[in-house]
Amino acid sequence: MAESKLDARLTPARPDLAAKHLEGQVSATRFVEGEVFEVSSGVAPMRREPFSGAMQETEALKGERVTIYDRTEEGWAWGQLHGDGYVGWLPDIALYRPAAEPTHKVTALRTFAFPGPSIKLPPTETLSLGARLAVVREDATFAVTQEGWYVPRRHVAALGAVETNFVSVAERFVGTPYLWGGRSSLGIDCSGLVQTALAACGIQAPRDSDMQEAALGRPLPLTEQTRLQRGDLLFWKGHVAIARDAGSIVHANAYHMATAIEPTQEAIARIAAAGSALTTIKRLGQTAPAAARG
């Protein structure tokens, strides 16, 4: 049956409810169209179940769109992110109906949104790399958003602006705490680091490491003769790292509980000793579109 082949992480379907477009593909008591909302907070957790103690599957950043199919009286909303298709429960309070299309994105590792044109004011929100904003005007050194937030102008760029080297973006996260399901500079996991760094270069990537292993790049031989290049991706079961050069990697990992740089062979040996052998090395093609941010 086709239903068994669908990835539950990317399929808005439960026994009691499913997205209308899945009718005929999955079994559910009822099918609904869903409503589009936008993430209003800086970072919103997407959880496996609708309560605050449930496992965090991923995070949604400010400005991301999500189609919501269900809500609970306790303040949780179940839906699917438009960016990478992930499905889960978000806090309802973190969502609002879109008022304007995003025009800009945060390009700093993190920044603050202020309620007025002064950095001495208490920040209204913390924004992370990749957050999307609808900027309505500029005011001196600030970009003013539709909410009336004042964001340092040097920390944002037009949506079409891209970085030129995703490895350099990943290296900026060194020291960021490890967080399962994290996608921000406040906390990030291994596949979140890869996805976020590639996104900064205008390259869309799946959310989880197994999805990335299947979708990204071309495989290289797993031999000692294989010389790693900057930007190669190394995969283990449940983990991914980025090659910085022939001898070192950068990765968000639970061993260091942070994004860290370490010698490649030491990492391979350490992870193998913990019971997981290297499964794949992937080499990406062009790592950034031709247009680049100046």
TrEMBL record:
<dbReference type="InterPro" id="IPR000064">
    <property type="entry name" value="NLP_P60_dom"/>
</dbReference>
<dbReference type="Pfam" id="PF00877">
    <property type="entry name" value="NLPC_P60"/>
</dbReference>
<dbReference type="GO" id="GO:0006508">
    <property type="term" value="P:proteolysis"/>
</dbReference>
<protein>
    <submittedName>
        <fullName>Peptidase P60</fullName>
    </submittedName>
</protein>
<dbReference type="GO" id="GO:0008234">
    <property type="term" value="F:cysteine-type peptidase activity"/>
</dbReference>
<dbReference type="InterPro" id="IPR038765">
    <property type="entry name" value="Papain-like_cys_pep_sf"/>
</dbReference>
<keyword id="KW-0645">Protease</keyword>
<keyword id="KW-0788">Thiol protease</keyword>
<dbReference type="InterPro" id="IPR041382">
    <property type="entry name" value="SH3_16"/>
</dbReference>
<comment type="similarity">
    <text>Belongs to the peptidase C40 family.</text>
</comment>
<dbReference type="InterPro" id="IPR036028">
    <property type="entry name" value="SH3-like_dom_sf"/>
</dbReference>
<dbReference type="Pfam" id="PF18348">
    <property type="entry name" value="SH3_16"/>
</dbReference>
<dbReference type="InterPro" id="IPR051794">
    <property type="entry name" value="PG_Endopeptidase_C40"/>
</dbReference>
<feature type="domain" description="NlpC/P60">
    <location>
        <begin position="160"/>
        <end position="285"/>
    </location>
</feature>
<keyword id="KW-0378">Hydrolase</keyword>
